[in-house]
Amino acid sequence: MTAPTPVIPVPPADLPGTLGALRAAGHQYRTVKQELRDNLLARMRSGEPRFPGIVGYDDSVLPEVERALLAGHDMVLLGERGQGKTRLIRSLGALLDEWTPVIPGSVLNEHPMHPLTPASRAQVAEAGDDLPVGWLHRSMRYGEKLATPDTSVGDLIGDVDPIRIAQGRTLGDPETIHFGLVPRTNRGIFAVNELPDLAERIQVALLNVLEERDIQVRGYQLRLPLDLLLVASANPEDYTNRGRIITPLKDRFGAEIRTHYPVDLELELALIRQEADLVADVPEHVLEVLARFARAVRESPSVDPRSGVSARFAIAAAETVAGAALRRAGLLAADSRQGRPEAAVARVGDAVSVTSTLRGKVEFESGEEGREIEILAHLLRTATAETFRAHLSGLDLSGFTALVDDGAAIETGELVSAAELLRQVGTVPGLAKVLDRLDLGDAPTPEEAAAAVEFVLEGLHLTRRLGKDVTDSGRTVYGGRG
Question: Which stretches make up the Sigma-54 factor interaction domain (predicted)?
Fold first, then answer.
């Protein structure tokens, strides 16, 4: 099977088709940085969102990015993994003009009013106002390269094409060059992800691109004034130990911008809601447990602070919990008494599985080897208790503790249906207030009510008001403390 071909937008029919028509329409040539500056200012004045989809950076990172764009600076985003650096870089493309004119067939996306190569200049001089004009969509003006140790100067900048030499062209002829990714993104935005991983001798090749705006290939210089915004991302050098950004290259970036993880719980939750692809309903209190869990892992002294805990950790946790809920719904047969199949609604108990499935996303301190799951399980319990206190503190929950008086017990677990759990608890005083505090509405489904009940039971256990035991079959049994 072949990969699907990306759909290339079709230019509107009313765009000028020749250089003469382009001039008559009043089009003015602008560099990429002028274009970004003008469009950013236009969005600021209109109040239109400038970086849609970027969460948690409104008062910190985004103002610095805007200042860099307005100043016309190339920039490097520095931060731990999973802080949205690549997402932010890719969002810059939306600030470009939707359509920009190009000379058809130009590898360098040359502007008809500003040709670069000798061949294009000759073409413009010969055709004059009759020169055909093509149109390039902004989605095609973004280039990206993940820096890997095997990246070569030829990949980024270009190399001599031996076939063109064999055809009789001389080495001094620009037509002998096969241009790399950077020149091919001329008049656009080019991003280098994980820049320190690029070998230092390869980083040197970017020096002229950033300062002199020309390129050198195989010992001779091409005076091609490249027009692009160069953006790089990097993890802190003291963590990666795989390489560094060489000092002359750091000096050529106009702005170094430090990114960060969400600064508060609400932003963490907003990020999970936006990014997680949930295959089942995950109530807000369960999402909050996972958000608090991610933040607790990030702050734990047992976790290497230099590595960071990616925002993908909390997102993957939410998706895993949703998957557990869907698995339960798929395995449980329709309950004849409720007359319908189990709906997929996550419960707090479904979060237990994330401690084993996501431990590979966390780098622990060297002295914690063998205790990874134990540490994560403790932090998950802490996050659950904090969420319980945040939502249900002050409520009279004696109706739930009374359920296990006289040695009675309540069984729940991964494969216990909502109907079975609710039959065990019956009519519980205080349940309506619990549902209201958890924003589950006046008429929750049985599955939502079961999720609330399980959350209360787990919270009462974590606050030492109920006992808990896990059976060999995987069921969780809540009972009295005695």
Answer: 178-236
